[in-house]
C-alpha cells in the first residue's frame, strides 16, 4: 500500500484508537449533584412598590439544580420598616435556601437584633419563612430585651423580631453591668 500524503494514515489511526476504547456501564456513572452556579459578594435586595423591604448579603453563594442555595461562608439579612428605616439584622455562620419549602435556614452562631426595640436573640438555628413573614426555631434561645435576659427552647416571631413568643421558658434575670449578648 502506497501512501500519497504523510497525513493519509490519520483516519486509519483514529479508527484504531476508537476501537480500543473500553466500554463503560451507563449504570455505573453517577449524576453530578454539586453546585451548578457559584457567586461571590452577593447582595440581593427585595422591595415592594419601590419600598425597600430586605437586603440579603453573603460572601459566597452556591446554587444547585433543584433550586436550593447554600451560603457556606455565612449570611446576613437586614429588614426595613415601611418608611425605609433599618429595623432588624439577622446573621448566621452558614445559610441555606430550601426551594421546595420556600424557606431560609441559618445555623451556627445565629444573632438577630431589633435596633428599634433594642432586642437581641442568640441561637444555633433559625428559620425564616419569607411568605409568612415569620422567623422561628425549636432550639435553645437567649433573648435580651433591654436589661433582661430570657432563656428558653423554641421561639416564634414576626420577621422584624418586633413581636415574639418564647416557648418553654427556662429562666430570666436582670443583666449585670457590662453583661449582654
Automatic annotation (TrEMBL):
Molecular function (GO) terms for this protein are:
lipopolysaccharide transmembrane transporter activity
InterPro entries found in the cross-reference section: LipoPS_assembly_LptC-rel, LptC
Gene Ontology terms: cellular component? plasma membrane
Membrane spanning residue stretches = none
What protein am I looking at?
A: LPS export ABC transporter periplasmic proteinLptC
